[in-house]
Design a protein that fits this description.
This protein is of the alpha/beta class. The radius of gyration is 20 Å and the shape is globular. It has ten helices and 13 strands. It starts with about 25 loop residues before the first strand and ends with a helix.
Length: about 350
């Protein structure tokens, strides 16, 4: 770093994205992207929007917000589009966390939470998961803190029920509870219906996974109008034009093609169950994933060695060196062809050890 870098950021540990290699063609199962291309409607609308890139996009995201509100069955004052769900999560740390309202989240969860806390100067508590990698709801009941829960959690893939989420929200009436639903479309229950009942609940979702738009960067926050107004204050104080014209058009297009999204999600769920069934027969241990990834380990090979062996054979997965995680690999659920190749390759590796 340079000698000019502010002291307040010198100890910051940035988030580490999944690798995006250029050295060869891989079966890429390391960053939880969709194996399916975006909806044709999204592609067509994006191409049309590209003709007017000389103009600023609509800062109010009027049409996109109307489509989002219709999707969730809420008023458009209750939704806010963001530059990926990362942006709206950061807005929530900025809006609802300070020294009097520290953050609370799991010690094994989405890695950006601690980064957002540190860059915003927010004190935080990392709560250990139970031995089986589940969240203990009691750890979040009646806390005088702003709570962030990824549901389903990452990288474990385990989800809380809607009733468990409600218990947490209900017990913290004077603090905001943020439920990060990046993977909710692959089998978990959404907390969105609860936002009409609780004014302290904020739900975030992303278009990166189920809607095949990781490259476009689009996310959304859903909450009561007052919470969304708070986030808009942050947005208009940092980047009023946070959603570019092409991403906005892609979002509108994919929302006009919900059948496409549902079919893709169903295919991913089927592919997940196929791969988990075969891996179970090979002796892998896996968490009960309700996401588009599998979190797995095998007693006969370390997580790091399995990652390396798969990489040599042209398959990328995600390995974490953090304690309690280093025996595991997180494997994105791809197409059926990719899952067959993965399982065949895993069988080969296990035969060789």
């Amino acid at each position: 770093m340079s000698r000019f870098f502010s002291d307040k950021y010198k100890t910051l540990t940035p988030y580490t994205p999944g690798e995006q290699p250029r050295d060869q063609k891989y079966i890429k199962l390391n960053t939880n992207e969709s194996p399916f291309p975006p909806s044709p409607k999204a592609v067509a609308m994006t191409a049309e929007a590209a003709k007017n890139l000389q103009l600023y996009p609509d800062p109010e995201c009027t049409e996109l917000h109307e489509k989002l509100a219709a999707l969730y069955g809420v008023d458009k004052s209750m939704v806010l589009a963001g530059n990926g769900s990362d942006e709206v999560l950061n807005f929530a740390f900025m809006a609802y966390c300070d020294k009097e309202h520290p953050a609370r989240f799991a010690n094994i969860t989405y890695g950006f939470y601690s980064v957002f806390a540190e860059i915003n100067g927010v004190p935080y508590t990392e709560v250990p998961l139970k031995d089986d990698f589940t969240i203990d709801v009691c750890d979040y009941i009646s806390k005088n803190e702003t709570i962030f829960i990824a549901n389903p959690n990452a990288p474990t893939g385990i989800a809380l029920t809607s009733l468990e989420i409600e218990a947490i929200v209900k017990s913290n009436p004077d603090n905001v509870v943020v439920i990060d639903e990046a993977y909710v479309d692959f089998g978990a229950e959404s907390a969105v219906p609860l936002i009409k009942k609780y004014d302290n609940l904020l739900v975030t979702q992303t278009f990166s996974k189920s809607r095949s738009m990781a490259g476009a960067r689009l996310g959304v926050a859903i909450g009561n109008a007052a919470l969304i107004q708070d986030l808009n204050t942050i947005k208009y104080s940092t980047n009023p034009y946070n959603i570019n014209r092409m991403t906005m058009a892609a979002g509108i297009g994919v929302l006009a093609d919900e059948e496409y999204t549902k079919n893709n999600c169903n295919s991913i769920i089927e592919n997940r169950e196929y791969a988990m069934s075969r891996m179970r027969k090979m002796g892998f241990e896996m968490t009960p994933s309700l996401t588009n990834f599998i979190f797995a380990k095998h007693d006969n090979i370390s997580g790091g060695d399995l990652y390396s062996e798969l990489r040599k054979r042209g398959i990328l997965v995600r390995h974490f060196s953090k304690p309690r995680l280093d025996a595991y690999n997180r494997i994105t659920v791809g197409s059926m062809e990719q899952m067959v190749t993965l399982c065949d390759t895993l069988e080969e590796i296990l035969k060789e050890i």
